[in-house]
Specification:
Layout lengths: L8 H34 L12 H15 L5 H7 L25 H22 L11 H27 L6 H11 L1 H7 L6 H22 L4
Length: 223
Amino acid sequence: MVKPPAASPNRAYLADTMATFSHRYSQIWIAIASVIAVIFVAYWPWQNGLLVGSDGISYYMVTRSIVIDGDLDFHNEYAHFIPIAPLSIPEMPETSTGLLSNQYPIGLGLLWAPFFFLAHLAANFATAIGIPIPTDGYHPIYQASVIFGSGVFAFFGVRFTSKMAAHFYPAHAPAATLAMWAATNLSYYHLYEPSMSHMASFFAVSSMALLWVKNRLSTSLMA
């Protein structure tokens, strides 16, 4: 059996250097990237001062209606957002119950709810101590909370992807994952359109993939 040629000293040194650099610093890069994303979008208003935009408005209506109104009646949300961003919200017919429908799934609205609720508590606390922040669910503090939520989903999605890759290439997994984030549209939706559903989807898929890989390796079963 012919053995493959041994790696040259220069190539081996380069590989060891990259592995060390990857292991030490890539996790820090991931955390910094997520923090930058939150700061970036917090100070980059969408059209007419909105932080949520495009599909995110419809997802946001679900969160606001559940937490503030305690229902899924979107009449008041449509009345608020249509004059501000008419091109982002399609005209939806009334359902048989007399409510206005929403063409987007409810999942992201539910995932955002804990972050939105914390913003609601903060707004009420600020009002109680004399800082007048509207507690109607439309103030930028509420919108920033769901943007922050998407940043959290992005961070853990990248982290879980890195951990999954580390099962196969532990030395290079973090840096490779960061490169994936930077070189694909993942970074675009993380930084520029965080109110879309992509970060939550990434979080859900990476979580499922990580659990599958860990179970597959521990049981030696092929799915």
